[in-house]
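Troubleshooting: if your tokenizer reports a length mismatch, compare against these two reference records.
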Amino acid sequence: MIFRISLLLLAFMAAKAGAASIDQQTYIIHMDKNKMPDLYDSLGNSRQWYESIIDSITQFSSQEQEEEQETGFPQLLYTYETVTSGFAAKLSTKQVEALSRVDGFLSAIPDEIMTLHTTHTPRFLGLQIGKGLWDAQNLASDVIVGILDTGIWPEHVSFQDSGLSAVPLKWKGKCESGTEFSPSNCNKKLIGARAFFKGYESVAGRINETIDYRSPRDAQGHGTHTAATAAGNLVEKASFYGLANGSAAGMRYTARIAAYKTCWPSGCANTDLLAAIDQAVADGVDVLSLSLGGSAKPFYSDSIAIASFGAVQKGVFVSCSAGNLGPSISSVDNNAPWIMTVAASYTDRRFPTTVRLGNGQTFEGASLYSGKATPQLPLVYAGTAGGQGAQYCISGSLKKTLVKGKIVVCMRGISGRAQKGEQVKLAGGTGMLLINTETGGDELFADAHVLPATSLGASAGIAVKEYMNSTKRATASIAFEGTVYGDPAPMVAAFSSRGPSLVGPDVIKPDVTAPGVNILAAWPSMTSPTLLKSDKRRVLFNVISGTSMSCPHVSGLAALLKSVHKEWSPAAIKSALMTTAYATDNRGSPIADVGSSNSAPATPFAFGSGHVDPESASDPGLIYDITIEDYVNYFCSLNYTSSQIAQLSRRNVTCPDSKALQPGDLNYPSFAVNFEGSAQNNRVKYKRTLTNVGTPLSTYAVKVDEPNGVSVILEPKSLSFKKLGQKLSYNVTFVSSSGKGREGSSSFGSLVWLSGKYSVRSPIAVTWQ
């Protein structure tokens, strides 16, 4: 059930409370507990410290005290002792100003009563409290999710342990001490935290502890965000300055979290990643989530592929991000078939802006700026804004005499998006229009800008510059429209990396897509939302985008499936998520690809099998399972040497002297077909085996959507199962009518096994090489 309280009603309620509280509202005050005086620290009770602070800010001058009587004295409502440091209080704006001068003050975030629903991605994915995968019995089982990232902010409310049972007996991990981190920072939710930096420091030198913590504590925010997305608690009234209001929840919000800090200001060393995955598996994690990657390389020389294969051998599910180098083809990372590779897509929520030019033209942009609209202001760009580099608004390029009080047009590139806004603000600018380059297309990023600013697509950017060239008095205004729902969705993000895989073209990558654009989740209370030093804002939740955000969604969903099907292998969980994924949006049209011309329908090289559907995945009917022996045969089919295979599998393997092995026979839930040459009737034949996990007595019939220029022959065309766990095989032959003139092109289709409520779908991607 959804309850809605409008801002108008909230204003009415405030008015009814009486004139004495008109200038007051409730704030959540975040405090640095390390600044607590020894007097209170020795008592072990921060409440007395907070009470003394409340008393201190009432000591105004006599005039201020008279004004204070009109607005009411501060009212302490709650103190936060365990999951975060601070308190809730009703304060006037002048009291907040006084509080901001207190040593130890971090931020004051206004309380809000808005729409009570999820921060959208769980609801968008079909997850409902008390039903299906989110029913109490399923959520009660213990699953441990390991996060390899930039660490974690343990005091955050998303990681409190209220209501959780004791730490699982199987857990062998621990919480390591380090800079501003101790074993006491862990609890029954965050059950483990370690930091790995020896490899990083050997290359980059000792970690600068004024920039990052030499411990599991997160200074960059990324790890805190991904951990909460996968398994953070259900937290009500979450938002980013009023945007994306709702209840924040990880996909498997009752799971335990183990944080492994492997990434530092300049990146993540493979030596550290290997050590962390090795330790995580020994500690007893069930799922590993890695929102990171590098360049594609053969699996036997890919540290993540090697370590994750060792994890899969121990029954651990591994989910990785596909990368953010789209829409370039063959840019996908983490290509190993035992890894779940996740692309990024939009939900139906956006944060629009309206840009109005002086000639009446209007354009839609996107921004997380939550302030008031700008008036119509002069526009400046490039030479009219500064010197060399001014078109990109890089550091030192803007001139105050040209920029002050104006809206600056900045092209994307060279520096970060939020950094450009910082430069405009430092130069005295009032606003910014951030324009995509041609390669960026019309994809719109919503950023937490430090001044009124919005992104605009490449086509809008062209129109803005044409207008500016047509007049010497160009003006524009920016209006911020808040949070809007109901867009066509999902759509594949343009930045999401694409297939086909350069190192494993016999497997379609990425595997699936999941929400990865404008995702709201937990954020460290000492880190600004833009990561800029000049940005003094502090928030509990932040909105960011990337395949780094889509990956933990799938990690959390895998944890949900592991709760329901404890006996399933990582490959079985992966198969269930892939074969139940959907390829149409909420309006019944094919899922669009924002990175393609005119947002054409996405292909399997953009979204793999489609968008994840967790409730359907919990009951997929059939699965394509893969054993470790299957993977070893796959290595043999790739012509890997015995030493290369041993590097991956820690097994001494002698491959059979047979040409019968082919990579396409790996029992994968999708089909990547590669035709060499242009001869007619070019053909390849693959074998697949399905395991019945649905109805004991069931018959499945096949339906094929043939790729253009390819005939697909199935044998048999129906499969009759007599019991659960039964395995039945089929052969599928792909025949090319002709590859002449099609070299380098691809065609797509699907193969679906149907029985009653079950639809077991596999995408087909055919490439002529």
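Reference record two:
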Amino acid sequence: MEFRNLCSLETFRDICSPSGYSENLEDVIKNEFTRIKGVTYLDHAGATLYPESAVREFCLDISKNVYGNPHSHNPSSTLTHDTVDRVRYRWDYNLILQHFNTTPEEYSVIFTSGSTAGLKLVSEAFPWSAPTATEPGSLFCYLTDNHTSVVGIRGPASAQGALPIPVSPSEVEGRARAGVEGVGGHDGPAACQTPHLFCYPAQSNFSGRKYPLGHVRGIRARRLYPACDHPGRWFVLLDAAAHVGCSPLDLQSCAADFVPLSFYKMFGFPTGLGALLVRNQAAARLKKCYFGGGTAAGYLAGEDYFVPTANVCDRFEDGSVSFLDIIEPHAFGLARYTHMLLSSLCHGNGHPVAQMYTQGQFDSPDTQGAILNFNLLDCRGHIIGYSQVDKLASLYNIHLRTGCFCNTGACQHFLDITDQEVKNNLKAGHVCGDSIDLVDGKPTGSVRVSFGYMSTFDDCQTFLSFVVDCFVEKPPRVDRVRLENLRQTKTGPCGNSSAVDTTLPKNPYTLTHIYIYPVKSCAAFEVCDWPLGASGLLFDRSWMVVNGHGVCLSQKREPRLCQILPRVELPLGQLSLSAPGMENLSVPLESAATLKTIQRVCQSKVCGDRVETVDSGDEAATWLSDFLGQPCRLIRQSPDSIRGGQKRLNTASTAVLSLVNEAQYLLINQASVDLIQEQIRNGQPLERQDLISRFRANLVIAGVEPFEEDSWSQLIIGNAQFLVGGRCGRCQMICVDQDTGAKSKAPLLALSACRSGKLTFGVYLSRQVQGDSPSARTLSVGSAVLHRTLDLSL
């Protein structure tokens, strides 16, 4: 079955019926979401999109009404107070309590800045108790598949004597015991009154798995684990933030004690407003230490005397509410269709394209939300790092999310990451939110796409076509048996990795080009021979251009930088700059002793490193500002500023860096460039020299097989010795034509095709300087290149 034939609306209806794609929503999408034309937005689990009418009505409302502080008593303040109360309480309006099928008699709405703020409020106000000689202490029990903000409750809980207990999803029912209902349960009489809190998500923000809402009653009645093993009064916090974006929540059938949520997850707007729904029976047990404006019935400034307001909402809303910041089968059908096709998609050699992370069957919106979580695999079964997927998706204007999604527990479970590996990765420099996606070939995170009510079938098509174009060995194939069985059978793990051929020739090679980039992100300066400095080629990336706020400019944001040609003229002792339509500018190459005495010293940042820099003066600033059309300055690395190599490179312990991103030198080979050139099609041929310039290497060699340099560990070029520090990860910079500044994604797509989605090309080098001779301090074009290959069999 051809994959393209499956990407049709007719096939979608046939596969997913009656899952529920609603074409009736197309008029809504056309009228309310005109701004996303050409954009494939697949991060609704992060934040859904707001309808444009909501913003228009909001602006109209605040432009016609005067809203004052609700704690005053003037007319504008009364309007605010009444409006907030109407949103909070009125049943005859389709508002908060009605939306969750409950009433003010059952629940109170406490406005917060978002779901996390609601969780923090519970963590601080819950009546935790430390163990005594006669009573056990409180327990804070949480599902391991919880958002970071829920797990964070254990800090305040532990500080007040409570014992944190992580609970795996299988333990809740797997360790349940019958016959304890009414004995120590939340609503029944009990000798032990120690308060305990159990927290779980209605829907996992990692995998989209929906947990039974019946757990609320089961925990409070002490039928389910861990409540069945511990007497006391059990309260339940149901994290509804991910669930309510596309699914209804009926608090009549699952009366959780605390329900935090964020409105931007539901409506896209406003982003600074959420709520904590508190069951009134549980509200009386909350203890609040801090009191802010509007929460006190009365207090004394000179004495520890404070009486809270009687109203629960007023008592917990510190200060003034952000009063100006006051839909499921459709989304699930799209998600299920995408899941089925992605799960059955294969490379031309028959190996699967994706490893899916889902629990159980993806066949019902009752058990699964509109979230897909996965990693892509190359044709040998090796995982493609999520940062590579993210970079290419951005080129296609596809908005998705990568990483661990603030859910370490689920990430560890699905990716089989041990606690020790998490700690080791952290020591190695990997932190949440960075781009280190693979450590020793093992993924540190994954890719997540999620759908909302304004998502369309075109979004599915665009995403699936993107995967095929960028990551699938042609021709794409579909596992028909797997596709037909997906309605009944669980998606399992994908194939094993295969070995890599590491046999390499050991003939000498030749250095063909030397480039230095005196000004970071500006044009290259080609030379035939050049001296080597302590941090790389002499004067390579010694200067950089910063904007009016002191932030370094790059071609990603200012492609015209490529038209600025710097030249280091050693005999004249100057740096010259030229650009179209501009007079040439000369900047003196001052000695280290005088540089800091004649110019202003300032602090700057390069790739997260703080570096001391020296301003190059007003003349250079004016020249750059005139050409780039914005306030700019030229700054140079201070001679006293020393940067070490990046942690993830093998050379980190010895290499001293200039203003480069990663390492002292970057090397590429022409054979690899030629292979990439052959991949570029669609009427966009690029000359070899054009491609070489886009990759912005210092050293270019000839006479090798494509990408052979990936396996090298050491190099000798002429008489200079180098260590290989790692591969160079590529981004949108290679899309910029280095002559004109025009952008084309053809080089990045060609690189992805050559490397099965891995966006790496070139290797980083650092020079071994110990005991070198004077002849080793210069590089010349035509020098022989010798290499040593890594032993990959260990």
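Descriptive notes for reference record two:
- The chain is about 25% helix and 25% strand.
- The CA atoms of residues 516 and 525 lie 5 Å apart.
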